[in-house]
Please model this.
Amino acid sequence: MRFYNQSKLANAAFGWELHRRLTAAGSAVRSVLAHPGYTSTNLQTSAPVGMVKILFGRILAPLAQSPAHGALPQMYAATAPDVESGHFIGPGGVAELRGAPKRVQLASAATDPQVGGRLWELSEHLTDVRFVIPSEGRMRGR
Model:
């Protein structure tokens, strides 16, 4: 679970860093983050036998929402006209486990510019890919 949580934090920090860079460049492109809440997928049941599989695959399973409902925050984030770059969309119910999509709060570590900048640099180094965000003027041929 620690590695899973760390990977989710990295996803959020990277998405926020992309938002920050797009905004700084004056780009109209948006970076929007979304999470499905607690959705009943094979992620819980395919875990090795142990506490995670027992807890999430059996005991807490009744709290999970269907995959169709879990997809709603992502669909909302991609299509709702009121969603802006930098927003984080998730289920609006208790503890963001389930419910209708709404804007939710990112963990403060995900919005730390030092964390995001370092993750961006490390990603570029490990992939040997440099992603340059052109300014809005350069995108339109100015």
